[in-house]
Amino acid sequence: MIIAESMCTMTTHVDLSLLNYAHGGGDCDADKACGTWDFTGLRRTMRGTRWPDILVLCEAERYAFTGGAGAYEAALALRQEQRDLGLRERPYVPLNGTLTQHRGPIAPTVFYDPTTIVVRQWFDGEDADGYERTRNLLKWWPAGAEDGPSNHLIPQHWPWNKPLGRVFDAEELTRYGRPGAPPAVILGDFNTAASGEDVAGWDAINWWQTIRHSQAWAGRPEVYDSLPLDMLLGVWDADQGRRVSAGGHEPGFADVAELVGDTRPTEAAKPPRPPQRNMRFLLNAGFRDRVVDGSYEVHDFLDEDNWDSDHKRVSVTLEVG
């Protein structure tokens, strides 16, 4: 991939990581109170030399409760892991988000390094003057380039059991793909596939149909509800070998894994369901041509036979100006 030349006087590389750490390491759930968090798996999943400027952690369950105890303890655990590895410590600052459709306190949390990232605004969805379209919107600059329009980052965690709920979430994001929109990356756990992707086995023993579809939903075995992602990425055209929008224009977003040709699964198999790729980075036109060559990575676990979560960490580096 060729990185486009920037019109700005300064460009820098910003590294992003995305991870779904099951229940945030907590022992809580919808029907019981939260006790403590165990960040051992988080530390093991992040172990290595690559520590991002911005980390989005999905399923940060109840991290915002009691003064943000979970979020700050997670930030401390990340710092301790870097210290034990003998690395420069990134003093991550947590920003707790929210979920759409009243799905509970298990939303993504953004951890950013204030030495490399300057935050302009953070909309967590709980603001008194908040709009649904700005939920979990982070406006930011790389440090040293705090001029001009800000960049956007919007963490997502779409509902796993609401096909129409995923459509509602996608509708709110289409605005970031309009022509002239600021550079934006939408990232998270999308819990679905796009058209043209291999979904063989996703409906094994009719599990998906039973759980995800009512009698009114027109789902069919081995056909997954690709509409939400297609609203952002475009529909796969097999004849052209690319994604196209119904209106004939370029789709609003591109999937980084498709751009670089690395569509390995990021989620463990849950028999009879095979491994899936729900963790994604979606880039609008402002970032589409700014993926640093070789930077996309699906990180291996320390023990591939004993995962520390049910999702792998994924990373990408963008050239930002």
From TrEMBL:
Top-level lineage group: Bacteria
InterPro entries: Endo/exonu/phosph_ase_sf
Protein name (database record): Endonuclease/exonuclease/phosphatase domain-containing protein
